[in-house]
């Protein structure tokens, strides 16, 4: 079965020219959707779609596993854990690590900025460009200083004790930035590979050791019971 395919060119370079290109790509996408039978949405429909999308994002964040009791507050950065990696999230929970800030590619770091509905009515493409291109920091951007600035602010405002970078073993972009990320956040930092060949016991050992490190920084009393205070 053949179906129309649209390939969107998303600029990696952060510049005024790249911003114009991004807006042009949104207009090209609009023309494509209309050509294959779509209809131009009303401004209210666009606003409602954004509300529904944000609600679904919040639902997914709430569904993340959490420790039964008080845990060490960590930020989760990197790739989106998929169904095969649910085990990893459960292991974080059992180690006593609370995901206090989800900064994965599906977390709040990847949420678009709030919309100005008056601007939406005047220029929908400009509104979308401001919300996505201008506001979302990514590791693949060049330069990607926006990502590091965002991490510093987010880490301080969330009161984090450490960071866990979750990356797929083939993800070279996150792997290449490990040292810079560790230096940027200024907190204990765990680089965790989502390797399907890794055993649960190996991951559990690394996470429990990381939880012990966070606990030792907070109190000289040794922690037990999966990283919780003794």
Explain what you see.
The termini are far apart. With 230 residues, the protein is an alpha/beta fold. It has a four-stranded parallel beta sheet, sandwiched between helices. Helix 1 (16-35) packs across helix 5 and helix 3 packs parallel to helix 9. It has helices at 16-35, 43-62, 86-94, 117-122, 124-133, 145-158, 172-176, 178-185, 200-218; strands at residues 72-78, 97-104, 162-167, 189-193.
Number of strands: 4
User: β content, as a range?
Assistant: 5-15%
Order of helices and strands: HHEHEHHHEHHEH
Rounded to an integer in angstroms, the radius of gyration calculated over CA atoms is: 20 Å
Low-confidence stretches: 224-230
Q: How much helix, percentage-wise, in residues?
A: 40-55%
SSE-based structural type:
alpha/beta
Q: Shape from CA axes? A: elongated
- Tally the helices: 9
The mean pLDDT is 85
Strand line-up across the major sheet: 2-1-3-4
Main β-sheet description: 4 strands, parallel
Q: How many angstroms does the end-to-end distance come to?
A: 61 Å
């Amino acid at each position: 079965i053949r179906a129309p395919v649209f390939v969107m060119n998303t600029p990696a370079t952060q510049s005024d020219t790249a911003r114009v290109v991004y807006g042009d790509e949104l207009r090209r996408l609009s023309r494509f959707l209309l050509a294959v039978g779509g209809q131009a949405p009303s401004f209210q429909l666009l606003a409602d779609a954004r509300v529904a999308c944000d609600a679904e994002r919040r639902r997914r964040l709430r569904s993340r596993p959490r420790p039964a009791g008080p845990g060490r507050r960590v930020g989760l950065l990197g790739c989106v854990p998929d169904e095969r990696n649910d085990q990893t999230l459960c292991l974080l929970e059992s180690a006593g690590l609370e995901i206090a800030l989800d900064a994965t590619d599906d977390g709040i770091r990847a949420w678009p900025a709030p919309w100005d509905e008056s601007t939406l009515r005047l220029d929908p493409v400009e509104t979308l460009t401001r919300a996505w291109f201008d506001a979302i920091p990514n590791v693949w951007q060049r330069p990607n200083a926006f990502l590091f600035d965002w991490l510093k602010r987010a880490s301080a405002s969330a009161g984090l004790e450490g960071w866990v970078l979750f990356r797929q073993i083939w993800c070279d972009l996150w792997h290449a930035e490990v040292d810079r990320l560790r230096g940027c956040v200024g907190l204990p930092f765990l680089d965790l590979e989502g390797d399907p060949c890794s055993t649960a016991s190996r991951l559990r050992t690394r996470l429990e050791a990381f939880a012990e490190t966070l606990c030792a920084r907070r109190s000289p009393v040794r922690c037990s019971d999966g990283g919780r205070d003794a």
